[in-house]
Specification:
By secondary structure, the protein is mostly helical. It has three helices and no strands. The N and C termini lie far apart (56 Å).
Amino acid sequence: MANIKSQKKRIITAEKARQRNRAVRSELKTAVKKVRVAVEAGDAAAAQDAANKASRLLDKAASKGIIHKNQAAQRKSGVQKLVNTIK
């Protein structure tokens, strides 16, 4: 454990950020999973709606630095390709 006051604060801050980032990443996985489930069910409208929501979440995570912008772009592309298979 650190002895320096500022370092103790950084430890606490870093842990809060880690928990927040973990929650956001989990939310992203759930959003992409909803798209996959809708595609498997063959529901084009629900799949497109879920893809739009997932796309928005991915962009938000990328802008906040939780995932890299190229990673967000790749995931968005993959999600949209899935949706296009049932259109």
